């Protein structure tokens, strides 16, 4: 009876969350006295998972699964869990896994705990700590079902190397044709940029930047920091920036190590969506901006003055410490 994870990949390459999930699973498996099995879909080099404690990989390869399909992918995880006799299934908190997790739980008659932020507090009874109320509080949740599904919150555990001896096995689960009634005509992805989902640092701008022509300083700061760029909802609604950069409760959730908000007042929906970030820095001319109440560091000042100076100082620091 091993512990099972679904190791997400895109274009054949594993996402960062796959390595964090494997690291977390290794520690949980040690507590439970078992091993870690991963199921992958159309991944290329699965040997990477051995660096993070995965003992066995079941590889699924199928052209029909090139684009994510929640029902089909959930069925794969379900069949893998049944094949391996897994009683604990770990998923990440990406958009795909959040779609899939409830379907997996129903299929396995399992209890499901989302937004898990730490190792189990107890395994008998099985209790986990979770984010609650838009990351404003924590909840201790007990799962009483025999099979348990956990959704690990992004960037809540980290990536920890723990080399293992890996066994690889091809797996061909039976797929229901009814799961493919939805046809994907095309998928548009941003390229040449750091993904918001994978970014350790995010630099985000709001209406305080006054127009899309001023976004160069956001991109320059992000480039120096090796960060992803993002924006508030009003900015994407005004078409200053693409909707793929919209972060917040109604956009993409962010759980970065460092989130820098520039010219964003801090609507409750935006704060709820980025509240899992570990360090939040705010730059705004309005000292009463709501964002300052949740910020770890705040600068009251004009972004057009502060950001270029900050960028220059960071460039000098990097030059002196490279």
Uncertain residue ranges: none
Radius of gyration using CA atoms only: 21 Å
* CATH superfamily heading of the largest domain: HUPs
The fraction of residues assigned to DSSP E strands is 15-25%
CATH-derived architecture of the largest domain: 3-Layer(aba) Sandwich
Shape: globular
Order of strands, widest sheet: 7-11-6-1-4-5-12
**Major sheet size, sense and barrel closure:** 7 strands, parallel
Name the descriptors.
single chain, 322 residues, alpha/beta, Rossmann fold, 2 domains, seven-stranded parallel sheet, five-stranded parallel sheet, 7 helices, 17 strands, 26% helix
Explain what you see.
With 322 residues, the protein is of the alpha/beta class. The chain folds into 2 domains: 178 residues, Rossmann fold, CATH 3.40.50; 120 residues, Rossmann fold (3-Layer(aba) Sandwich). Helices cover 26% and strands 24% of the residues. It is built from 7 helices and 17 strands. The strands form 4 sheets. The chain has a 7-stranded parallel β-sheet with strand order 7-11-6-1-4-5-12. A 5-stranded parallel β-sheet has the order 14-13-15-16-17. It has a 3-stranded antiparallel β-sheet with strand order 8-9-10, with no helix packed on it. Strand 8 and strand 9 form a beta hairpin. It is globular, with a radius of gyration of 21 Å.
Quick rundown:
With 322 residues, this protein is of the alpha/beta class. It has helices spanning 16-32, 70-84, 95-107, 216-225, 233-237, 268-274, 303-320; strands at 3-6, 9-10, 13-14, 36-41, 56-60, 88-91, 111-116, 122-123, 126-132, 137-143, 148-152, 167-170, 201-205, 228-231, 258-262, 279-284, 297-300.
């Amino acid at each position: 009876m091993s512990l099972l994870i679904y190791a997400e990949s895109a274009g054949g390459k594993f996402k960062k969350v796959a390595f964090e999930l494997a690291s977390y699973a290794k520690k949980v498996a040690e507590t439970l006295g078992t091993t870690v099995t991963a199921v992958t879909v159309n991944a290329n080099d699965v040997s990477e998972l051995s660096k993070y404690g995965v003992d066995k990989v079941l590889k699924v390869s199928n052209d029909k699964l090139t684009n994510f399909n929640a029902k089909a992918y959930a069925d794969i995880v379900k069949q893998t869990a049944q094949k391996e006799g897994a009683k604990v299934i770990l998923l990440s908190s990406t958009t795909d896994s959040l779609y899939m997790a409830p379907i997996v739980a129903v299929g396995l008659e399992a209890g499901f705990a989302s937004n898990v932020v730490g190792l189990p507090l107890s395994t008998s009874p099985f209790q986990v700590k979770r984010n609650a109320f838009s990351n404003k509080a924590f909840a201790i949740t007990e799962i009483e079902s025999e099979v348990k599904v956990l959704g690990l919150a992004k960037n809540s555990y980290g990536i920890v190397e723990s080399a293992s001896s890996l066994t690889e096995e091809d797996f061909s689960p039976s797929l229901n044709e009814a799961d493919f009634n939805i046809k994907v005509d095309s998928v548009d992805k941003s390229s040449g940029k750091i993904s918001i989902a994978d970014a350790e640092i995010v630099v985000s701008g709001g209406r305080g930047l006054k127009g899309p022509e001023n976004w160069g300083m956001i991109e320059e700061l992000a480039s120096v920091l090796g960060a992803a760029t993002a924006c508030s909802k009003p900015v994407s609604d005004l078409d200053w920036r693409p909707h793929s950069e919209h972060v917040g409760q109604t956009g993409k959730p962010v759980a970065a190590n460092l989130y820098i908000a520039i010219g964003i007042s801090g609507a409750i929906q935006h704060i709820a969506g980025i509240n899992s970030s570990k360090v939040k820095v705010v730059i705004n001319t309005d000292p009463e901006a709501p964002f300052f109440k949740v910020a770890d560091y705040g600068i009251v000042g004009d972004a057009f003055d502060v950001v270029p100076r900050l960028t220059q100082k960071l460039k000098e620091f990097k030059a002196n410490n490279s």
